[in-house]
Design a protein that fits this description.
By secondary structure, the chain is α/β, with parallel strands linked by helices. The protein has two helices and three strands. A three-stranded parallel β-sheet has the order 1-2-3, sandwiched between helices. Helix 1 links the parallel strand 2 and strand 3. The radius of gyration is 12 Å and the shape is globular.
Length: 78
């Protein structure tokens, strides 16, 4: 079983994914570098699915829709 984790409000408060889990973040792909650096500092190297919208176009709605899309295309995630 693979679990899906979020960055903000989950990993940032100390709940970390297991070795086979993935991270689905609403953060824009433009935030990839700093997000991966933050995760690396925490010892987290799991795959990350970034929101495919530009940073300035990101909304709570687009973040939520991105997460739904990932969950629909990755049926092994719980």
């Amino acid at each position: 079983m693979v679990n899906g984790f979020d960055c903000d409000g989950v990993i940032t408060v100390g709940l970390y994914p297991g070795p086979d889990d993935i991270i689905i973040t609403g953060r824009s792909y433009e935030e990839q570098r700093e997000t991966l650096e933050m995760l690396k500092k925490k010892g987290i190297t799991n795959p990350v699915y970034f929101n495919p919208v530009k940073f300035k176009e990101k909304t709570r709605e687009s973040s939520g829709q991105h997460k739904v899309n990932v969950l629909r295309t990755q049926p092994e995630i719980t």
